Amino acid sequence: MRRYEEVPHWWYVVLFVLTFATSIAVCEVYHMMPWYWVVVATVVPLVFTIPIGIIQAVSNQQPGLNVITEFLIGYGMPGNPIANVTFKVYGYITMTQALNLVSDLKLGHYMKIPPRHMFVVQLAGTVLASFIELGVAYWLMNTVPNICTPEGYPFTCISANTFYSASVLWGLIGPSKLFGSSSPYHPVLYLFFVGAILPVPVWYLQRRYPDSFWKHINVPVAISIAGAMPPMPSASIVNWFIACFVFNYLVHKYRNTWWQRYAFSLSAGLDSGLAISGIVQFGMFTKAKMPQWWGADAEHCKLASSGGFLNRVAAPAS
Predict the structure, then answer these.
(1) CA distances from 53 to 65, 71, 267, 272, 287 (A)
(2) pTM (whole model) above 0.85
(3) Measured at the alpha carbon of residue 129, what is the angle toward residues 133 and 135, in degrees to the nearest 5?
(4) Of 37, 102, 128, 291, which residue is the least packed, with the fewest Cβ within 10 Å?
(5) Predicted local confidence at residue 299, as pLDDT
(6) What per-residue confidence (pLDDT) applies to 314?
(7) From the first residue on, what is the mean pLDDT of each consecutive set of 10 residues in the chain (318 residues)?
(8) Given this model, what pLDDT does residue 296 score?
(9) Which helix (H) or strand (E) holds 24?
């Protein structure tokens, strides 16, 4: 890889200046939020990208900044859900995309792809995907009846509904009302202090007893899964636990040479296979008439069609 020229720093600087200026212009012209909040939203990923990147490098888990960004803008611009989601996108998704870029560049380094080629391809793919995804979203909204509702199954938009619900809770209602002193949810704020203090005793026990069970405990990783809980079916956690236990404990302990050579490649292959199989299954089986057998001819779980969030109906008053 030393034979290839590295990407000059001024490429990143020019790209940042262009996108930053465009972000301010878009937010001001379309009245999404004032320019100074764009500056604050840019500082958030600047502070958190490296520490969260370290956690992801160690554990393959990426704690989200969605609550922090929603909290900040919720107090700064209460009653404005559009500003809330806009600030969250610039403050949280910027960090996510930065770490995705680092991950892709790392994969390109392993595959001996020139860094400048990787930079150009990543930039071109991002620009192209922006227009394609926007076009597909408009097409789906205009062609799929009852989209993002239970009647529009399978297009129930679980993640989009979670995003919308967050804009109402944190933006329209606001954290000052949701977690104020008179709110029943006010004690939840103390969990911020719990999350800040909890790693300290675990760290002490790890230093005090380096060969004990405590060396396997990582508090940020253990509690980071809570960030994925609202749109995620709980059964996924069981599958993740089984796969993690098999590959990161059994294979790592008893077949360490194989794990060092193929674990990363296998992870990338599984991710790619999931994306490809999703496209193939959607194209081949969405309108196809499938064979019928027991278990596939009825809805055995009333909450399965939408992850259990859209079909909940309030019980009638007694």
Answers:
(1) 12, 22, 18, 22, 42
(2) no
(3) 30
(4) 291
(5) 63
(6) 45
(7) 89 95 95 94 94 86 86 92 93 93 89 92 93 92 89 82 87 88 88 90 92 85 73 72 87 91 86 88 71 66 57 46
(8) 62
(9) helix 9-29
- Residue whose tokens read 């399965």: 304
Do 243 and 267 meet the contact criterion of CB atoms below 8 Å apart? no
What is the reported pLDDT for 301?
Answer: 67
What does the H/E/C string look like for 257-284?
HHHHHHHHHHHHHHHHHHHHHHHHHHHH
Angle at 26 between CA 25 and CA 32, to 5 degrees: 115
CA distance linking residue 72 with residue 37, whole number of Å: 10
Place of tokens 């990208």: 49
Dihedral over alpha carbons 111, 116, 118, 120 (to 10 degrees): -160
Residues present in the chain in total: 318
Cα end-to-end distance, the chain, whole Å: 72
